[in-house]
Write the structure tokens for this entry.
Amino acid sequence: MLKYILKRILLMIPVILGVVILVFTLMQLTPGDPAQVILGPTATSEQINELRNEMGLNDPYIVQLGRYLYQVFLKGDFGTSYISNISITTELMQRFPKTLIFAVAGMVLSLGIGIPLGVNAAVKQNSLADYGSMTLALIGTSMPGFWFALVLILLFSAKLGWLPAYGTGGLKYWILPIASTAFAGITTMARQVRSGMLEVINSDYITMAKSKGVSKKNVIYRHALPNALIPVITVAGMSFGSSLGGTLIAETIFSIPGVGVYIVNAVNNRDYPVVQGGVILLAVAFSLIMLACDLLMAAIDPRIKAQITGGKKRGKK
Amino acid sequence: MSRAAVMEKQSNEAKKQNQFLEVMKRLSYNKGAMVGLILFLLVVLVAIFAPVLAPYDYAKINIKDRCLAPCAQYIFGTDHMGRDILSRVMYGARYSLLIGVGSVIFSAVFGVIFGSIAGFYGGKWDNLIMRLCDVIQSIPGMILNIALACVLGPGVYNTILALGTEGIAGTARLMRSSILNVRKMEYMDAARMSNCSNPFIILKHVLPNTFAPILVQATMGVGARIMMAASMSYIGIGVQPPTPEWGAMLSDSRDFLMKYPYMCLIPGVAIMIVVLALNLLGDGLRDAMDPKLKK
Amino acid sequence: MKKRFLAALLAGMMAVMTAACGSTGSTQGTASQEAAPAQAEASQESAASAAEAAPVDPGTLKVGIYGGLDSLNPWTSGRITKDMVTYVLYETLACCENGSTEIEEILLKGWEQKDDVTYDCEIYDYITDAAGNNIKADDVVFSFEKYMENWATSVDSIEATGNYTFTLKMKTTAAGAFEYIVCKVPIASKAAFEASPDGFATTSCGTSQYTCAGGNDYVNGTTIIIRKTDSYWQTDENLIYPGSVAESDTIEFDILSEPTQMALAVENGTIDFAQYVNTSMLDEVSAYEGMTIASVPSSEDRGIMFCMTEDSPFYNDLALRQAVLYAIDNEAVAEACGYGYGSPANVTCGNPELTVGYDASWETSPYAYDPEKAKELLAQSNYDGRTLRLLCNSNATITMMWQIIQANLIEVGINAELSVVEGTTYGAYRDGTSGQYDLAYAGPGNGGYVTSDLWNTLFNRNNYESGRTWAGLLDDTLQEKYDAIAAPDGYTQENLNDFYNYITENALYYKIYDLPEYCAYKEANITGYFSDWNRFIRANTIRKAQ
């Protein structure tokens, strides 16, 4: 097992390297010049060129890439922002917890609400409860995030005055932002669980269990649910990963300083080291989460465990 | 006709007809999927016949008539520049569907190619392609889209490319695992023994049998892409104005959510209908293609 | 059947949700007599919830600004929202009123122009920053050098000549260059900067009456809280600059980038003062009971420019340029973008309140909307039916303006396609030699001397590597006229008018409309404020009713 974990962590290195190279190349290809952004529109090209030289932007692509890789992988330093001169590591460490709150809360809610909704819908297939929760699920998957966030603000903050509309602070401040991002996750989860459950409920061994006279409750919770939940773990992991960077719209609307908004502002400012540093952090976090999911699945499902301990490489779904 | 009779009939026909027809047949018995299909086809028809159906030019600006509530002259009202919302929603169907379907096809085509290579040839190729997929998937989708959109610039086709690239990794993975399953089947050995070339085997034998999950994923994906395009419009890197893409309409009208709610209700409902239709259709397709799932 | 029901239910729920929000807006928007009690109740409720969330201190002023700051560092570059905080925390050597040529000293005790480009300056010898460091000439030099690392300036050199005296040498003889820079560079002491653990990124130590302590007082992207210090160096009340007074004990800046959020926050009292309200929200906000909106002139000249390189269809084709200008319905643009608060421009550039040397004789409404004349001129031009590429940045108001321009051009028979790109790409494409456009949004700054801002940016080809103007024009007559204004003592009305007429007759640049920037506050809460050339209301001068 330990060998497997070690191997997976080692496998992360080329992936992260790939992420760095991809993001670095994308930033190089983007029109616009960081030196121009820093100096403003009235800068003469002489001044811009001088700054570019100072920043090393005039060096060949491969030299710049090599320098960046050396700095990150061998010195463990993300550098400083072009615009604010603040250490990127410091800034990321301040922002990451906020993004993590979004992601963790989203995960907890989608598991805590999505699974019961999905199970209930599957068990009572074609009932009013089924249609009700699936309607909700479809609304969730067909509402753009920014729009839903604004509707929530207008309803709960402007009209009812129950919750603060923006800012950070206590739990109260987090309710609307998290609701606006987690809704889609909950509904996706509910749909996933429902179809997973249906598949299991209709499978032969459940029919067998039923025919042997095992109680319905027992069948569902002892036999069907655990099996239906295995693919759910991957879905939860993936959505956790995507919410790491995908909350930038909620971050903008609710004035929450997270990683997403930091990266997107940096893209707009051509603040290359910030974009690269931020994406590396998110990619590492994502890879670790996927590893955790795989380990969790192995712990639940002996078949997967056998694959892992048997040393066979298993492709992620 | 009783359900059992239907099943029996289906299983009889399955022997003679190919899988595709069988699936279509099963699909046609699924009411939800049919509602979805009809809704989707309606939207497609509106998109095709927009120039005939739309009462006004979608880009015609009429400042004097701005922000009008729905009335006889403008059934869905006008937007903040006095443009007819009905006409814009009709033309918008073209762009939103083009973005949704286009980017899904883009991901599907490249995903299938890369996934097939990885799954069929294995070894070095498999490793390389899968690590590339890891790279793409470990960057949060939204951020990758934004970076790509900045590189490519705005516009409908560039938005399709930006949205489509992200999806390649997912499709490739799906394709690869399907191929790994299919490879073990007996008929593959038969095909190999009869000296068929690899691309021929992939096209003739593997693809038709791995088509189901890809199609389901693609159907569901269209709605997700339309939503993603809306988010990109919000950030200001989506299609070019005055293109009436629904997401852009929604984003443009967000300042008027309180005063003129109909302005964002209409494109919002349009997005909803398409997402709903495709989800119903996708659910139906999945059921129809999975013989285990007898509803 | 049930699924169809589901579809109907789905659409219904969405409608109900939106309608629910909509009704909020309409009761508040119309503020009818009947709705008033309910509305008052609602606002009480939200005020109560706000109070519960953060205990409101009567000495705290809460100000909403529409964009974040990457850092509090006063010298790094940033948007105008950064200035709104920077100039409350740091003072400059001097400042000046809108459109005035006279500078008012703040840290400067006096100055003298030695020759065309050299200035001898002296600062007060008793200036101290918040940490008690005495500000010396070395600190001024240090601040200038820090600033020049991040901004392109026309400063040639700065040198300390004594403890409190220094010499500033400019690169240009143009009027306004000295005035611009002494009003712009925030001054801090080198000792304080070096003592700061993060280089002033999250804390501040300036000579103003406020400091930011960092920690919970600086939450990047959300709030910045600054507090009044006990001691202010300038003890002679007669010498205190009106923009340096401290009206509140504490000022909290809330960053609200979504226009709806800003409007709601000022309506329900979460903030006392909204520094910027989007024009699309103005009707709604001003209709709210007791709400006042006030304006400061915009920092942007909302004008367009033609690409003038040899490859451009506008090169050597005055008739086509004029046809384009006549085709633009600037009244419609002003109405659309300003929602009734904008006005079509009656000059080709400049602003009466801001531009030094602005002359009433310019106000002839050149190129007012005349589609017939546009068609006539188009027929005389060499226009070959090609599709013109229009370039602008992705700001919502600017994009709206360009959609109308595009429609106007198509109406008179000029094909045009719009290319809206995000800010930095736009910045990279905006130079005429980039080959990315035929007609572009220019939006130069329009404050103070035209030789330090407006015309310098647009027409001084010495600024650009290509040796051409911003739009890629190579015109010796134009440069001669510019150099005449920029020469020592050349900033005369005669020269200015001559230049203005030249660019107007040749249709080189055209301002479409004017739109001030609006702020909003409850009349009963705010009793006064001060604004100067910075083109925003200084938060430290906002007086809150007790």
About this structure: Confidence is low (pLDDT under 50) at residues 311-317 of chain A. The CA atoms of residues 36 and 42 of chain A lie 9 Å apart. The two ends of chain A are 20 Å apart (CA to CA).
